[in-house]
Amino acid sequence: MIFIIVEYNIRKCSSIIKNEKGEYIVNIDENINKLSNSSADYLVRPRLDNILDQATLCKLVYVIAGAGYGKTQAVRHYVEQKKGATIRWMQLTENDNIPSRFWEKLTHTVSIDNPEFANKLRELGFPETASRFKQLLELTRTIGDSDKRFFVFDDFHTIYSKEILKFIERCAHIQNFRLSIIIISRAEPDINIIPLLSKDEAKVITEEDLRFTDQEVEAFFHYRSVPISAQSLSQLIDAAKGWALAINMFSSILKQTPTNINHALNAMKQNIFKLFEFEAWEGLSRNIQKTSVKV
Questions:
Q1: pLDDT digits (tens, 9 = 90+) for 173-194
Q2: What secondary structure, in 3-state letters, does the chain show?
Q3: Greater confidence, 103 or 6?
């Protein structure tokens, strides 16, 4: 198996700490970055793996859900288990809406295990036209056999370039090529996949698929060695609605305050609001941030 991740998903490091009032809060350290490059600390969910198994029989897979549903972790864990497969992973940002930058990142991804093919891609350049894309198809015929190929585009909701969207759409329609494109996104991309859906060559995995079932929530607490009563578990299931972020945060808080379920639930809700406020703020341009501060 060849597993490649380029430009790992770098997120602000956060942890649960107790403040001077004895409250458990999320501590966000803006100076520490965390590389989420392993699924070692991940609860195996056979139900979700089975969904991905069926979906990746298709050329194109959408994994569409809001923040905190565990999209990246679920896909990463799944592809890591695929022996003999070639897996390439691109972590996208808004900066990648420039086709030349996108292409450089893509070719760098390929170069890690196939530098000769990557050089050919660089010489070709970003295939913005149909004729250039046909040249790309000719190049793909020189690639050796592999049991399976996965190309994962993470945080695809940051991509709005029409040229790049069209490129991905064309790739999804390649015939006789053992490639599954997996798009992880918070919103459905502006790509026409109706022809693929009609031929059962594309699948969409949604929030409903990613939500933890009651049994998975219980297994998660057992996996993390966090004792929880049946009544408390029921309260959490009702509050979290299968949302991975809430379940994970609650387990961290409950591990530190195991006798106060209501406090843990309230702290979970407050901390989630704080995280989303921070994320929304970080998503604003620096100019807007400066203007907001002045106001």
A1: 887 667 899 999 999 999 999 9
A2: CEEEEECCCEEEEEEEEECCCCCEEEEEEEEEEEECCCCCCCCCCHHHHHHHHHHCCCCEEEEECCCCCCHHHHHHHHHHCCCCEEEEEEECCHHHHCHHHHHHHHHHHHHCCCHHHHHHHHHHCCCCCHHHHHHHHHHHCCCCCCCEEEEEEECHHHCCCHHHHHHHHHHHCCCCCCEEEEEEECCCCCCCCHHHHHCCCEEEECHHHHCCCHHHHHHHHHHCCCCCCHHHHHHHHHHHCCCHHHHHHHHHHHHHCCCCHHHHHHHHHHHHHHHHHHHHHHCCCHHHHHHHHHC
A3: 103
Q: What is the pTM of this model?
A: 0.81
Q: What's the pLDDT tens digit per position in 264-278?
A: 777 777 777 676 665
